[in-house]
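To: structure desk
From: M.T.
Subject: fold request, one chain
Message: Could you run this one when you get a chance? Sequence is below, nothing fancy, just the single chain.
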Amino acid sequence: MKYSERYDSMKTIYIDRKKMKRLVMPTLLFAVMFFAGEGYGIMRHNVIPTSLVFNETSDWGLGFGEEGKQPVGNAGVDELRAYNAYYMGEADSNVIYLTFDCGYENGNTDAILDALKKHNAPATFFVVGHYINTAPDIVKRMVAEGHIVGNHTYHHPDMSAISDMDSFSNELNMTADAYKELTGDDMPHFYRPPQGKYNVTNLRLANELGYKTFFWSLAYADWDQNNQPDAEYAVNKLTERIHPGAVVLLHNTSSTNAEILDELLTRWEQMGYTYASLEELY
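Reply: Done. Structure tokens follow.
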């Protein structure tokens, strides 16, 4: 099986309804309702205390309220910060942090880089080991144009199923070694868990290795190249849900993203937003 097929088979589903239902304490007398947000788990405000979810293996999820306001994650900002983990910036700053998950190359990344360059917008590209080995020139371009190349593990496994340091560090070290062999530089210690799966042990292990973990506060269903969203729909969705301090997750494989990014960045600028590197988030 080709890697792209393996990666595609691991489509991101950020809230497993059955798993989340098991987390609800039986003494609670209200119903917990979950609904999907284009493939990303969207959780209603204040349904489950964040600490209840935070102390279990979970999939990263968000609850959106009023348009233009910050969403609520299934772990709190302060809880995450204790492990050098982040998903959103300050509520009083109209700054956007752009991130892209890169599982394989299918010809859309150059257009994405062109749009970022046009708008002088820094981004972080979270790459798997395979990407470094198969798209070295694009990785070099990312670095040359001032973007961060972060660690998305080597094989894109469910890292929440890994609890020992040797196995956990091996996934990150293999990617970091490939990056250093290609560029001659150490890979930035920025990490994004595949599929958004995490638990406290994972956050602790990443922190012990010197990595900062980054989730996101805005995403949409863009990863399936065989089922791409309409361009107008995508722009409207991402414009409606943008908010101060947003960490935006997009996928480099998306032809829709390649098509709309210039327009999208222009729209956000017209709304008063600017772009900053993840280095400025923490």
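Reply (cont.): The longest strand covers residues 95-102. Let me know if you need anything else for the meeting.
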